[in-house]
């Protein structure tokens, strides 16, 4: 499902047309499949990348279940003539990679994942640095602006070495969503309104024992404080749910009046429901917070594996992703604002989701926050705040 409405213009439509002509690139040392009209052809640095990628012949990507990721892979494949195999899933892919690596099997080049999975891979030493393979033209710090992000360096990487985990998109995420037949906007002016008797027992919450559920608690704690977290969860302990999709269904059915889930329900989920005429609306801002909101990359961080089977194809993919064309393809197909500074995000329907310069945001998905959250002591502290037991 999508929130950010794509623009009506034909994006990079030359790729399919010129590639269908099956012209052979001359002087690049590549096979058929890359047109001489390709904008990256003719520059020796790019020619070398294309040649190495085509010698590999394939790129293997794992990622979250989003058709937009396949669209990005298809565009790369059409543009450069490199076959892309894309496998989409969630926790099962992380388990598969860990099991394979224990056996010395290296089948994946690139993964698009969330913070907890990538943090685990980094700590286990599975990841290789991306930064050394990048051309100077795509890693100029002036090209990147991750508004509100707590980065570790000048480039849009979130890991401690500022080189392994790429953050190409960044959005302000709504505090939640509500059923417009059951709740009126004037009832949702401040965070205190969420802990009134009128809404007690009617707010859906993500189970804090899971990854994104714990992020939600950490977010609310930073935004409003421990006392609020305790009251919210204690008043709605019967509506704590593990699955984000089920939370949405609760609101659509009217079982819950609203949900509070900044990392569970995002604009990507809600906008299609609004377009279908469903009685749902976002909660973007509430008074009484210490920050103007939170920013997230919502499971769209990109990593590269050690001993990748197709290093040449991976190098071309990362360089292309960080060009203006590649960054826009990733942002539009995955429906999030880009962190590349020279891109126009005006095509995004939910303007509230575009982080604004000068605002004070919290970045609960930053590396520092993730590392804190992944520590058993802090995780248990968050669970204790909610009082929710398994």
Describe the structure.
With 390 residues, this protein is of the alpha/beta class. The chain has two domains: 14-170 and 297-350, D-Maltodextrin-Binding Protein, domain 2, CATH 3.40.190.10; 173-295 and 360-386, D-Maltodextrin-Binding Protein, domain 2. It is 35% helix and 12% strand. The protein has 13 helices and 13 strands. The protein has a five-stranded mixed sheet with strand order 2-1-3-12-4. α3 (67-80) links the parallel β1 and β2. α2 (44-56) crosses α10 (311-321) and α6 (211-223) crosses α7. The relative contact order is 0.19.
Describe this protein with a few key phrases.
390 residues; alpha/beta; D-Maltodextrin-Binding Protein, domain 2; 2 domains; five-stranded mixed β-sheet; 13 helices; 13 strands; 35% helix; globular; disordered N terminus
What is this structure, in a nutshell?
With 390 residues, the protein is an alpha/beta fold. It has 13 helices and 13 strands. It has helices at 14-19, 44-56, 67-80, 91-102, 115-123, 211-223, 226-235, 244-253, 267-275, 311-321, 324-334, 367-374, 376-386, and strands at 58-63, 83-88, 110-113, 166-167, 171-172, 176-179, 203-206, 240-241, 258-260, 280-283, 293-296, 301-304, 361-362.
